[in-house]
Amino acid sequence: MKACYIHSAVSISAQNTFETVFNLSESKPLTSRKANSNHPPYKTYIAPAALRRMATGVKMGVTTGKKALEKANITMPDAVLTGTGMGCIEDTETFLNTIIANEEAYLTPTSFIQSTHNTVGAQIALGLKCKAYNNTYVHGALSFESALLDAKLLINTDESQSVLVGGVDELGKEFIDYTILVEDQNNGVKVPFSEGASFFVLSSEKQEKAILLNSLKTYSNLTEQEIPKVLNAFLLENNYQTQDIDAVICGNNGSVSDSYYNQARAVFPITTSQLHYKHLFGEFFTASAIGLFLGVSILQNQHIPDALVLGDYSKNSLKTIVLYNQFNGRDHSFILLSI
Amino acid sequence: MKKTDQNKALNTKIAITGMGIISAIGNSVPENLEALLASRSGITSISSLQTHHANSIKVGEVKLTNTQLIDILNIPKNSVFTRTALLGLYAAKHAVSSANITSVNAYKTGFISSTSVGGMDKTERHLKEFSSNRESQKYINSHHAGDSTQKIADALGITGFVTTISTACSSAANAIMLGARLIKAGILDRVIVGGVDPLSKFTINGFKTLMILSDSDCRPFDADRTGLNLGEAAAYLVLESQDIIDKEDKKVLAYLSGYGNANDAFHQTASSENGDGAFLAMQKALKMAQLDPDEINYINAHGTATANNDLSESVAIKRVFGNSVPDFSSTKAFTGHTLAAAGAIEAVYSVLALQENVVFPNLSFKTPIATTLLHPVTTVKRKDIQNVLSNSFGFGGNCSTLIFSK
Q: Superfamily assignment of A211-338 in CATH?
């Protein structure tokens, strides 16, 4: 089995993660209930004619994908994999509202064409003229992890040498307000709902500064009590113990299900730094891709931004990081990274 | 693993031990087979949902209503099941019981579904009430594509690896492919794979704007074809590792011997003139199955009956098979085009073709396409069948091919 390395990580998010060197010292706290991405000037990356038709998610996905390939010096990947929880919700809303308003008459196909979940993956393939393996995962808070698992499998089994994989979700204009409306005021998500795109190039080639993606495991359903056992077993399978882990990055979003993260954090000694990020980046189905972007950046830069520290903070060298994410106590994912 | 062992592992055939299906031509595998052998199409006028296009389209509807499905599946009346989740659970339960699985967690078992519309059947009905009507609000969180998958997995008792794929009309083929790869890699021992899509106004109007819906029975591969009929359906297959087969001495229905996924990288919705994506997908699948083109006895084509697909697929088939194109047919004239579910529906039909040694007919065909001159099989044809190749292509250039073998 070939080892799987992360050669590049690029993210467009609610903070300025895209254009600056990794440094969250100027990160702004998010105060509104909804937070849009800090969008770069897309015309630098996408031709104007194509850009005009693209919804926010497609712009973010195509741009981060392109930059991730550039950073990894890859012109043509062997696979393009995308994860998206809500898909192209902007165009879905547009087409749906036109059907309703016009009572199924006078419709044009553009928004329907762009509404399919695989639009980002398709547009990346089309832009690159990439005829390789192409797949899109749409499983709520495991959408990105499913794509990442597929990408890792392609590398591990030597089916591909380099894979472009990412997670993308756009906020949209209407559906998100309904989501917020039914979110439990007391027990629900407290961080803003947000959007973003993060893409990565995975490769079987060991390079300087490349991060090893040791392992990734997902569970549809776990009880809070099972978390310590599952987490310990996950580490042991990879020949690690809790004291070997330099930082744990959790997807805390302020909801009652943060109790799962408490269970996970309690497994580690005080020498393991405890980090979170959704207070700066918001919550959405593929927000965990930002978690991976941060994990990779922390290992590459050997620096933990203060804004990410949640509990214990240790100045130990940074060699190994665990990420844990879940949503409402469902769709759990554990990722192990190392240098 | 040494390279040779690894290649061997990647080329292992994956056993299919169970199947479940619900479509316009039947609510079980035997009912579907009976309709296929009787050349009885399930295409009718639309009755399950209100649309202004009712008089200008024909569809493949599942005959059971949501209420009937809820009764059959014994689901509590107040639960939030979209039609997607209901059809999916119905077919997935059939698949699990046909594989004689009594304890689902006796092995590392996963569930991989696929859908293109997710909970759209409820969203399109309730969107404008979501802000005010409490009764409708329960369908807000069932909109996303993973919802039906999670509900089906929960009902089956699968708690580990669960995911959903959406690559438009090739979705279920990709779900089947991922399942096989996870078994080969030893990540899972057993996996239930397939897809589901109900009819919705969203897709009816979407395809209507693209002007590819036929107002009569669709005619795949015919020179005078007038577009597709949409259909609704769900189908799932149970894939199991050779270890389980050996240990439990299980009956194998057929094997998945090859698969390929490629992108046409030509246009967001249209297929290329030379059918590059389709050609590459078929080639990859043949290579993995270690089969020469002349060892394929039947092609279950994608054959949607749109002008673009059937020509592009014909060109790709001729590029792969040259002048000796095997017997082929599209079964879309029976079921309609069931979008994300199509790859799973046609996987079930491919396994039935192997089991029954039969090529299912391509209904409503009269005249071959002038430039390719391919004649599909138009009546039930009995012959020895060892290998079946099944195509599924989708928007976004997503092309997938599966090969099933005895």
A: Thiolase/Chalcone synthase (3.40.47.10)
